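Sample entry (164 residues):
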Amino acid sequence: MLGLSVEQLGADMNRLLAILFHQGVLDEQFLQLQHLQDESSPNFVSEVVTIYFHESEKLLRNLRALLVDKELSDYNKMGIHLNQLMGSSSSIGAQRIRNVCIAFRAASELNNRPGCLRALELLEYEYCYLKNKLHEFFQIEQQRMLAAAVRYPAPQQHINNPQG
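Predicted structure, serialized as tokens:
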């Protein structure tokens, strides 16, 4: 047999999700998102997550830009960006990112620039970790969908049909 079976790929997906849940990277909201996916929208979760990553990258760039200038750090704007990132992270089940946002927001409310910089570094790390792991998950899911779609033709039976 070429490649992995649908069952093996499904088991790989479940193992990866179990690790991400055990690590606290994801929470039950990710499962709720998966329940919304069906045959009419087989890529629903990956499309939602792709939008999340696209928007999150903008927010992370904005947060970094706000912290670059030591004199002009706008902590109110940081709070707005963090609230957006917290909300979207919650909606896809990105629990550790949401938790870092909470700590980041607490530092920004205290105008604690060193605390904000540490939180931003941790936020960027968690973002990259989640992005890499979900990319891996969606690659396995894609392989599983392809494996399920492959149909091997039944062997042809040769019928002797003498023409007379």
